[in-house]
Amino acid sequence: MADTRDPSAEITRLLSIMAALRDPKTGCPWDIEQTFATIAPYTIEEAHEVEDAIQREAWEELPGELGDLLLQVVFQAQIAQEGGMFDFADCAAAISDKLIFRHPHVFGDESRDKSAEQQVKDWEAIKAVERAGKAERGTLDGVALGLPALTRAVKLQNRAARVGFDWPGPGDVLAKISEETAELVEARDELGPDALEEEFGDLMFVMANLARHLKIDPELALRRANAKFTRRFQSIESALAAEGRSPQDSHLAEMDRLWDKAKLAEKAAR
User: NTP pyrophosphohydrolase MazG-like domain: which residues (predicted)?
Assistant: First the structure.
């Protein structure tokens, strides 16, 4: 099916549909009311749904999820066009120009014969030029505030590491985790809720740094931990339901036993 459709025609069709939905006289009341701020959360949600489909390898769902994400771009471009700011063509041109600028070894005269390490260095040099053009002079400038907190923590730490502000290795980070854990306990026992929240945040920040040193994506690791918890708890519910009961009819010791049983079953299935 993909081979029989004209991408340009489908984009034009989508842009026309979005314009119709936003028409002040004949459009959809909900779509007309939306702003950049109200649409932004949906954009984030749709991006997560794309990732979810990929993680589940639900390839038949992926075109629809990518379409939902594309709609977010089209929606915001339409809002901008109505305000005389920019339009969809400007968005497409911006990313095309950026890709060409960042790949001189493909679209320019530079050689492609370079190591992955050298390519990373070149990439960072190119991005530094871009940041300078945006008057982003600080090392941490340009790290988006809207990123998930763990992801932003890693990006901030990576930026700082490029100028030498980093621990030598994971062992040093683990030592810092012990220090932050002790400070969290002290805050719990002796200080107020604001200090407790601050110390918890410090511990989470260092945990993200440990993930970076271990070359682990902390967001992905936590999502997998969430999925594992969900599977095992659902196993508890299924075991109790087989006896006509629910978790409310059980007790912690029994649920712990069922949890351990589910854990052993998962290990045996590997």
Answer: 34-107, 173-232
Q: What is the pLDDT of residues 15-27, one digit of tens each?
A: 999 999 999 999 9
> pLDDT by residue (tens digit) across 35-79?
999 999 899 899 989 988 998 899 999 999 999 999 999 999 999
Rounded Cα distance, 107 and 124, in Å? 18
What is the secondary structure of 145-187 as a DSSP string? TTS-HHHHHHHHHHHHHHTT-S-SSHHHHHHHHHHHHHHHHHH
Q: Please state, in angstroms and as integers, the Cα–Cα distance from residue 269 to each residue in 155, 228, 257, 263, following that order.
A: 36, 14, 19, 10
CATH classification for the domain delimited by 149-216, as one of 1.10.287.1080, 1.10.10.10, 3.40.50.10490, 3.40.50.2000: 1.10.287.1080
Fold of 2-102: Helix Hairpins (1.10.287)
